[in-house]
UniProtKB/TrEMBL annotation:
This is Trm112p-domain-containing protein. The lineage of its organism: Eukaryota, Fungi, Dikarya, Basidiomycota, Pucciniomycotina. SUPFAM superfamilies: Trm112p-like (SSF158997). It comes from Mixia osmundae (strain CBS 9802 / IAM 14324 / JCM 22182 / KY 12970). Belongs to the TRM112 family. Pfam families: Trm112p.
Amino acid sequence: MRLITHNLLSCHAKLCSAPTNFPLDLQNCTTVEDRPVDFNPDFLRGFLPKLEWPALLRASRQLGDASLPEQPPASFTLSHTTASTEDAMQTEKATSSEDEEEVLKKLHHVLLELHVIDGEMTCPSCHRVFPIKSGIPNMLLAEHELRK
């Protein structure tokens, strides 16, 4: 299971409701693999509006990866138009582009290349455990756990 998938999952047991059912905690992850994927910055930029940065940061830290910054770069959501001269704007743009590119590569690695093969996800609200086996999270609930 990639962290891009994890970032979209939440607990749907009848005792849980938003916002306490997200993010699921990654625990007992005995097998985590690094599987290379072609870098696609356009895909990442398109996914950014859907991304829950604090949840991704927490999940990556739970897997032992500390490469992402605490806060996403401002360039992910804001345009850089504060420079007073054209030269200053070009310098800022180049620096911002380099910083953005570096963070995009780290984001790419965390979202798409880290794979949890075996482990568990635990709901922070109801403490329901969802196993991950062979890279597939089992989100099925027992009948008594379903909302009616």
